[in-house]
Amino acid sequence: MIKLADSTIDKKDYKILIKFLQKNSYLNQSKITKNFEKKFSRAIGTNNSIFVNSGSSANLLIAQTLLEGNFLKNKTVILPSLSWSTSVTPFLQLGYKVILCDCDNKTLGLDSKHLKILCNRYKPGLVGVVNVLGHSNNFKEILKLKKKFRFELIEDNCESLGSKLKGKSLGTIGLASSHSFYFGHHISTIEGGMVSTKNNKFYNISLAIRSHGWSRDMENKYKKSLERKYKVDEFKSLFTFYFSGFNIRSTDFNATLGIEQLKKLEKISIIRHRNFLYYKKLLKDFWFQDSKLNRISSFGYATFVKNRFKVFKYLNSKKIQTRPLICGNMAQQPFLKKINLNKTNLSNARFVDKFGIYLPNHANMSFKDIEFVVKHFKSVAKPIKF
Ligand SMILES: Cc1ncc(COP(=O)(O)O)c(C=O)c1O
Where in the chain is the domain with CATH 3.90.1150.10? Predict the structure, then answer.
């Protein structure tokens, strides 16, 4: 079976987890989590990270921190139509006005021409991008628009950990970014996710919102200033809630695993990049995703075929897993069809929804595996250019 995604957790990781359990009686979030957050920040080149229980929770935490910290001039957000359900749902759930933007036909990130039209029309306070399958958005254009329209920018980097744009890690460009450590992602903590930010105020408010809205986890400066502002004494301080929070913490057990996983990230992203280039070489007649990165920590090989269902069935019979390109056009998902969203022109996303497919790429795949996939894929697939 050539699987779409494979585990990154091995026997050495299990041994370290067993040692952790033998050594510790307190298993909840504590010093090891802090240590994982520090190491993660260092690995991607940012200042602060907040470990949570999933990539979806990371998006939820970002959406709420932006509101609680008054980071936005208004609650209109432009989000990618080619994304994941929980790249969008936190914003709907928290009362943002959500506008979907079409995707670019090379990067599969936001289409900057469409984004410009939407910025002119809706004057958003926030734009969220998804770095799709290890590839970058066109940040050069998006940052120009950010300057012109003065919106905040956030990145959902759940599919692109380890990718680098001119030496800079994806997930360090916007005000905050989210990452996922679910099974089969670049690294895994079983379930898990991270918010990263260079902004100290954002970091501290996120720490509070992650844990019920209390100030316990915040840096002293922030904690003391809240206690002064609300006249909270030492007796009540642990049980005073300053922000409308959640409990979306993870544990030191998962963080122990995260620290071990992080050691493998570089190697994993090099293999994923190498696999991407090999697919591209073997599939010259087919569309490929291109975003001019110097490191593509590829999450799957995206392309388009005329006869997608036939390709899916045939590859399935050869024990090769395939799937839709992320999950197609978000606007066509049942949960969004039920809502009266502002209609925008999503012709590229509709194309992706109809013809997009992605082929397996993970760090346990060899060139032989890729040749096997390509041989069977080519024998049935009819190429289509975007
Ligand atoms: C773009 C994107 N955002 C968010 C998520 C959610 O991450 P998680 O499964 O850790 O909640 C995913 C899941 O794969 C994703 O692809």
Answer: 266-380
Tokens at 55, concatenated:
């990539």
137 CB near ligand 1 (under 6 Å): no
Q: Assess whether the C-beta atom of 20 lies below 6 angstroms from ligand 1.
A: no
Cα 334 to Cα 295: distance, rounded to the nearest angstrom: 35
Beta carbon of 87 within 6 Å of any ligand 1 atom: yes
pTM: 0.98
Cα 84 to ligand 1 centre (Å): 6
Question: With a 6 A CB cut-off, is 204 part of the ligand 1 pocket?
Answer: no
Q: Give the pair of three-digit tokens for residue 353.
A: 């929804």
Question: In the 8-state DSSP scheme, what is residue 285?
Answer: T
pLDDT digits (tens, 9 = 90+) for 261-306: 999 999 999 999 999 999 999 999 999 999 989 999 999 999 999 9
Query: CA-CA distance, 284 to 266, in Å (whole number)?
Result: 27
Whether 130 is in the pocket of ligand 1, judged by its Cβ within 6 Å, is: yes
C-alpha of residue 285 to centroid of ligand 1, in Å: 30
Whether the CB-CB separation of 188 and 264 falls below 8 Å is answered with: no
* pLDDT tens digit sequence for 29-48: 999 999 999 999 999 999 99
Please provide the CATH number assigned to the domain covering 266-380. 3.90.1150.10
Question: Would the CB of 54 count as within 6 Å of ligand 1?
Answer: yes
Q: Token match 């012709």: residue?
A: 347
Record: fold of 11-262: Aspartate Aminotransferase; domain 2 (3.40.640)
Closest Cα to atom 7, ligand 1: which residue?
A: 55
